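Tutorial, part two.
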Amino acid sequence: MQIKTSEHYKQAWLVHDLLADFEVEDVWQFPVKLDEKHTIPIFQNQLFAAMEKLSQKGIPGLLFKFRFFLGELFGWDKEIDSSVKTLKKGSIRERYANKYHLELKDLIPIGNAEFKPVYEKADESLAEISNATVHAGLHLSKVQNGANYNVQMAVYVKPKGTLGKFYMALIKPFRLAFVYPAMMRLVGKHWESYLEGERQLA
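Running the prediction step on this input gives:
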């Protein structure tokens, strides 16, 4: 479900200071429950596996394909660099490394060609994507809720020029009506399958 941005800011995440010049576009809470041993990197792996499936089915799949078609047609995605062996100037990864005086080896790949890792911790992670329309950060966090934990996703954006602002406004209704609800359902089912696998191995 979509939640208020204020809920995201209640926690002392690194991303608040790191992306203070970005706008929080959306904050969602996944329909999953984590326990003490489940870290954000574990959940993140399941999320991207589910997202791969989402991009291939239904209305969200068509929207993803249409977006990639436009990106190829207009050259929007030429700025994407899937390598994790370089710190691209102006990237969030470079910003994070410089701010905390980290070496490149401290930045851990997350196994998704479109998103670059910025950092991974037990209770939060940040990945980025940059193209001709927008520079964005995808933040995942583990938030305690009684005996269990919820997972929240915050999307930070910085549109690039008039085109970027127009594109973000154009796709927002589709994101809210189709992409995010489908993502929440699919990730919830995927996480339940993962937990069932854990129980069978126990």
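Strands lie at 23-29, 116-120, 124-130, 134-145, 148-159. In part three we will examine how such features are distributed along the chain.
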